[in-house]
Amino acid sequence: MQSVGIHHITAIVGDPQENVHFYSEILGLRLVKKTVNFDDPGTYHLYFGDEAGHPGTIITFFPWINAYKGRIGDGQVGVTAYAVPEGALSFWKNRLTQNDIHFDTVVRFEEESILFNDPHGLILEIVERKEGKKSEWEMDDISTDVAIKGFAGATLFSGAPNKTMNLLEEHMGLEKVGEEGEYIRYRSIADIGNVIDIKLTTTGRGSMGVGTVHHIAWRTKDDNEQLEWQKYLPTAGYQVTPVQDRNYFNAVYFREFGGILFEIATDPPGFAIDEPKEQLGEHLMLPARYEGYRQQLEATLPPIHIEKNRRNEK
Q1: With contact defined as beta carbons under 8 Å apart, do 149 and 135 qualify?
Q2: Is residue 20 within 8 Å of residue 72, measured between CB atoms?
Q3: Residues 185-219 pLDDT 10s
């Protein structure tokens, strides 16, 4: 079996309006879907990505207002990395500075990146990558020449690094491409969302809450291949859930031996299944089983909006 790379990453955050402002107004991502947590419909589930929310570009959030703060540590995705075009890093340094966002400059595997936190404590990274098509979503002064393409990858904080490495290399088809200091790097065959670093030293056990990643999802091409994953992973010792219908993809979940929650998600059908591409993210979209509760949910969920309508879809 082989996954081509990251499908999406899902995190827990605080105030939803702060979340929307940061990822749409500061980072320039498109809010491609505004829906609810299918397992907890009183909570939003917000999706951000490129112009269409292609797999490999999607970060999603469960905003829990006034929820307890989590701790980033072993058993979690520690760092979520974004890819920008070559030559764009200086733009992002200036943009973060102009918005009073502190960042550190890091060099790892001969790549310079900038490391910073979002408003709720998630650790983010921006790195230049040649691979991957440019985003077609422009806003403000974020042109396609500097806009975030999607994920560069992620850094995994594993409670059992050797077991996590074994899973990636022996069962998920990633290739080990380097080792430097306390990190080992793996690469998948996709041109985006394709680089995974595993931290070999412990950071202490993480705890779920605001400012932490809930799970990382890996791509599979269709429902049939997903069923192959569902059959294959138990032969390697992993307990896999039944298929979950998430409207925009189907999902199965398992917790790997380093404590990180993994998901295998289908590329189709995508986010245009229930609203036109040009209107993605503009309306609250509900699965059929919650449509009868729309009025109640719209009255309960806090209002959110993109503060400046400066979006320009090519």
Answers
A1: yes
A2: no
A3: 999 999 999 999 999 999 899 999 999 999 999 99
